[in-house]
Amino acid sequence: MHLEYLQRILTSRVYDVALETPLQFAPHLSARLGNQVYFKREDLQPIFSFKLRGAYNRMAHLTDQERQRGVIAASAGNHAQGVAFSGQKLGIHTVIVMPVTTPEIKVHACRERGAEVVLHGDSYSDAEAYAYRLQAESRLVFIHPYDDPLVIAGQGTIGLELSQQMRQEQYRVFVPVGGGGLIAGIAVFLKSINPRIKIIGVEPNDSDAMFQSIRANERVTLAQVGIFVDGVAVRCVGEHTFRLAREYVDDFIQVTTDDVCAAIKDVFDDTRSIQEPAGALSVAGLKRYTIEHRVTNEPLVALTCGANMNFGRLRYVAERAEIGEQREALFAVTIPEQPGSFKRFCRAVGRRNITEFNYRYAPRPEAHIFVGIQLEHTEQRTAIIRDLEQAGYAVLDLTQNEMAIVHLRHMVGGRAPEAVDERLYSFEFPERPGALLQFLESLDESWNISLFHYRNQGSAHGRVLAGIQVAADDMSRFTDSLTRLGYRYENESANLAYQLFLL
């Protein structure tokens, strides 16, 4: 099988439009990790993503009859732009089906390149299903984003370039994994010419369909996927890509949202370029892998593979990067509700830098404060907790508490003891007109909303925290209504941060 793919890669048409991207040494990250780290700069392609390679290679191999029919694709991002760019270059009519939630910057980029954009559904799955219906009706050629041998071969040309750019005989390559087209193409080429090269797939811990499939020895469909690293948010990997990954990929590593945000900052520090979350995913995986496996003094390559970042997301990324890099710790600290307590607390903190302090008076003997403290190194978090506890304070570490990070830090300041039977839920709303109204109309008028906090992260989904008063004997009907609504949700009523600050 590998000989067939090697031939496809070596005869690929990608260089009609794509660049041979540089392999750039990352001095700051290398020094921090004690390894030689290199970035393969796929974010420098004309569409700021590697996706151009596979899309163009597939479309360049269309027959004359297929070109006359035109093509269709489903995508919420970079594959769409790759297909639109290729259609413009080859003079092929192109239809792109995108979710309604797709940011306008990506919709505009496709239309600017002459593509006909059809907006349908809230997710990629909705858009893909509709694209297949349109394809059947119109006889357009479907250009799959990853599960196509010619698309895989186009992405595999990155492996060809790496084989010529890396002088070492043995090194590790960290590759982001969504549907698997990128890692399949790179792995089959590099492992075929040099089995000593190690290929490590990197996935978000909430979108790890490939790892789950490899472990189960069959393709697994995830019930849901995370939304932050949207470029790899795939519920099920491809048939071709699964087969190749199972044979040629050496290992996998999963990372968190905060890991990715920290990696975006790492790439910026070394290159002054800003990656989208999927573009920095492999850097996050490289960092976590070297720590967990104690890798030192080795050559390591990470693909920085996409820079189509929505500007509105930068605020969120900067906020989370400090936590992902473990440069900030968040705590809930209980202090006496009396004059002078704040000053005594600051004395206990010492000369450490307080990054955030949230407090609201309440007529109780004790007060709960939300405080952020800057860290010089990871171990300092434990030392801070120890020092505060020795000073007589009760401390709850909120550094990994998602609800506290996304919502609570912006809400500290009020309690509502009158809100009887309050249930706290976090939701992910599609960022489209009418989403909030749809949520409200799904609730019975007898269920009062007692708390609400929404935060726009510049992505296709918003994060909402809602307190809803529901009597115990009505919970079954309430949960049924949430299920029918179809939004991803989680019951946060037992979250200690909620109980300290808002209950």
Can you describe this structure?
This protein has helices at residues 2-10, 27-33, 51-60, 64-69, 78-90, 104-112, 124-138, 149-165, 181-193, 209-216, 239-248, 257-271, 277-292, 314-324, 341-349, 380-390, 402-406, 435-441, 475-485, 496-501; strands at residues 23-25, 36-41, 71-74, 94-98, 116-119, 141-142, 172-176, 198-204, 251-255, 299-304, 328-336, 354-358, 366-374, 394-397, 422-430, 448-455, 461-469, 488-491. Helix 5 runs parallel beside helix 6 (104-112) and helix 8 packs across helix 9. The strands form 4 sheets. The chain has a 6-stranded mixed beta sheet, with helices on both faces. It has 4 domains: 2-50 and 149-322, Rossmann fold, CATH 3.40.50; 51-142, Rossmann fold (3-Layer(aba) Sandwich), CATH 3.40.50; 326-400, 2-Layer Sandwich (Alpha-Beta Plaits); 415-501, Biosynthetic Threonine Deaminase, Domain 3 (Biosynthetic Threonine Deaminase, domain 3, 3-Layer(aba) Sandwich), CATH 3.40.1020.10. The termini are far apart. The chain has 503 residues and is an alpha/beta fold.
Main sheet characteristics: 6 strands, mixed
How is the largest sheet built, in terms of strand order? Answer: 1-2-10-7-8-9
Figure out the total of helices.
Answer: 20
Q: Which descriptor suits the 3D outline?
A: globular
Helix/strand structural class = alpha/beta
Q: What's the architecture of the largest domain, going by CATH?
A: 3-Layer(aba) Sandwich
Class of the largest domain in CATH? Answer: Alpha Beta
Strand tally: 18
Portion in beta strands: 15-25%
Tally of domains: 4
Write the CATH fold name of the largest domain: Rossmann fold
Tell me roughly what share of residues is in helical segments.
40-55%
